[in-house]
Design a protein that fits this description.
heterodimer, A: about 325 residues, MetI-like fold, 2 domains, disordered N terminus, B: mainly alpha, 15 helices, globular
């Protein structure tokens, strides 16, 4: 009953004060306020805490009384020997993901769409979606086991083919790391990422295919001239999103696969660097500055990406 | 009929590539099962690929008798159940309020939520605040900071907005307030969306190893994924077992054929079982979930 009154008071309750209107819907407000408080504490407090990038944070001073130092930590990062390889790794790994990890699910969706045998298709999908739901800990464990020197299947295979005389410790050789990282990512996500493209393909009007078939177009031609253009807009949107996220080159996967310190110079990206100097070495202000540097660049990149998307007729937000 | 031949070649190639991919997808799982079922001392000789050479269940026996691992399993179950139930309850209640037009300040609340989807304080400030709040070495660090998911709230809200208004009227006439209407009318008809979001939240909880790895140092509070991560990175499982568990120690000395590698594989499989159990349900729901997500984007 109170509800009916409430809606009236919103529509025509100009005479009532905000306070009394608030008290009238107190039970409704109580559904929202605890959640908002949690968001305030766990999302907004840390946003305020970002200011420590401009401080020399110490535990006793906390966020409020630590001394201000301006851009000192940013300057330290730019001048540090790590800066160049961290930026290079971030961009190279993201670039490789765009080059290989991005087209892989599109190709898979195009191939799956040509599969007429429903049973085969279903089995393939069931198997290829599974790794997406496993933790990176499990996936890295499987990969480490495949690449191991003791009974690692890859080494067994290479030995059988006569290519190697003794097992290779793949995860301790910097030259192999990017390839391992990218293929692991594809292995884990390719099936699941293909779902969106399969859905987009399913949305294409079947009449178009029929008309093309009557005109004598082969399946190959139908893929090139109907299916690919039909999902082009979805591809573009995801591509723009990926470009906007180019500074997030990976985190869990890199932490778990690059355990060997030898790999640091090829594996450290901005996010893992923040973790390493911040959590492991407790250089809180410095790590926050590095994180903020990334966040500012990312907002810029996303804004540019969105401007491009808008020009193409689809805004991201 | 030239193009019929190219079509047939293409279809053949596709089946061939997909078959090879199926093998590549499946083999790491298969091989880890084989290693877990093979005597460790035998695996150490190498060459164990498709079939166990010296079949044994000892690896699993040791895993199930190891108190540290089993404690981790219990912690994982607890955090998954408590974390999922509390998060889904709070988030859906929040979403219900946000679906009501008469909610004062609704627009501001919404802006407050949306902002968090684009900006965050990042790892270090969150870490320091959680530490200030006394969440170090505290079970609740795995639950409380992630209680509200703005993403899930928006999905719930979209669902609630589409419910016919007449449904709630009857409860209102019976004198139910907002809370009563929510629990008596809205929750019972929201089965599918609750199931979908619960499954995804639960998988997220089960798979999260990172939170515990930075906040928790007390062994008794570590979830199985974090223990497994430590085992994998140090690869000194035998030593760890001996330090923490006398029973396992005596077992190990009596069973020389259990090795680090065979134990790790068995532990990984045990940690994967819950995901395999819910996987059929996940598969039923996730296509929908992904589509909701992509529409939002």
């Amino acid at each position: 009953m109170t509800k009916v009154k409430d809606s009236k008071s919103v529509n025509g309750g100009a005479g009532q004060s905000l306070g009394s209107r608030f008290m009238k819907q107190f039970d409704l407000q109580m559904m929202a306020i605890p959640a908002l408080l949690l968001i305030l504490v766990f999302s907004y407090f840390p946003m305020y805490g970002v200011l420590m990038a401009f401080q020399d944070y110490d535990i006793f001073g906390g966020f409020f009384q630590s001394p201000w130092v301006g851009f000192k930590h940013f300057q330290m990062f730019f001048e540090s020997p790590e800066f160049w390889y961290v930026m290079r790794n971030t961009l190279v790994i993201s670039g490789l993901r765009l080059l290989i990890g991005f087209p892989a699910p599109i190709l898979l969706a195009l191939m799956l769409n040509e599969v007429g045998h429903i049973g085969f298709k279903r089995i393939f999908q069931t198997i290829s979606y599974l790794p997406h739901f496993l933790s990176w800990v499990i996936v890295s464990g499987l990969i480490m086991s495949m690449l191991a020197t003791d009974n690692g299947s890859l080494n067994i295979l290479l030995a059988k083919l006569g290519n190697i005389d003794e097992p290779i410790n793949f995860l301790s050789i910097p030259e192999y790391f990017w390839a391992i990282l990218i293929s692991t990512g594809v292995w884990k996500e390719v099936g699941f990422s293909a779902i969106v493209y399969l859905a987009a393909i399913a949305g294409i009007n079947p009449d178009i295919y029929e008309a093309a078939a009557i005109d004598g177009a082969s399946r190959v031609k139908q893929i090139v001239y109907i299916t690919i253009p039909g999902i082009a807009s979805v591809i573009v949107i995801f591509m723009i999103l990926d470009v906007g996220n180019i500074l997030s080159a990976g985190f869990e996967d890199i932490l778990l696969l690059a355990k060997n310190p030898i790999l640091q110079e090829v594996s450290d990206v901005i996010d893992t660097y923040v973790y390493r100097v911040g959590i492991k070495s407790s250089r809180f202000s410095y790590a926050t500055a590095v994180g903020l540097f990334k966040a500012v660049l990312s907002v810029g990149l996303l804004t540019i990406a969105n401007a491009i998307a808008r020009r193409m007729g689809r805004s991201l937000w | 009929m030239m193009h019929q031949r190219t079509d047939r070649v293409m279809i053949f190639m596709i089946y061939f590539i997909l078959s090879v991919s199926t093998f590549l997808m499946l083999y790491p799982f298969w091989n880890s099962i084989v290693i877990a079922l093979n005597a460790g001392s035998d695996t150490a000789k190498g060459g164990v690929t498709f079939w166990p050479r010296a079949f044994t269940l000892q690896n699993f026996e040791v895993v199930f008798q190891d108190k540290r691992l089993m404690n981790g399993f219990v912690i994982s179950v607890l955090r998954t159940v408590i974390g999922t139930l509390s998060s889904i309850l709070l988030t859906s209640v929040f979403a219900y309020a946000m679906s009501k037009k008469q909610l004062l300040f609704r627009k501001y609340y919404m802006i407050m939520c949306i902002v968090t989807m684009y900006f965050s304080g990042g790892l270090i400030p969150s870490f320091l605040i959680n530490r200030e709040l006394g969440l170090m070495d505290n079970f609740w660090v795995m639950i409380v900071p992630s209680l509200i998911s703005v993403w899930n709230m928006i999905i719930f809200r979209t669902f609630f907005l589409e419910l016919p208004e007449g449904l709630e009227e009857s409860a209102r006439i019976d004198g139910c307030g907002n809370w009563g209407t929510f629990f008596k009318i809205v929750i019972p008809i929201s089965g599918p969306v609750i199931a979908t979001l619960s499954l995804f939240t639960a998988v997220g909880h089960w798979n999260d190893w990172f939170t515990a790895s930075i906040y928790i140092s007390n062994d008794r509070l570590l979830p199985i994924q974090t223990i497994l991560q430590q085992v994998l990175s140090s690869n000194i499982m035998t030593e760890q077992l001996m330090q923490t568990n006398a029973a396992a120690q005596s077992h190990l000395s009596s069973m020389q054929n259990v090795t680090t590698k065979s134990l790790t594989m068995a532990t990984m499989l045990v940690a994967t079982i819950p995901i395999l159990v819910v996987y059929p349900f996940l598969q039923k729901y996730f296509t929908k979930g992904v589509l909701i997500g992509s529409i939002k984007e």
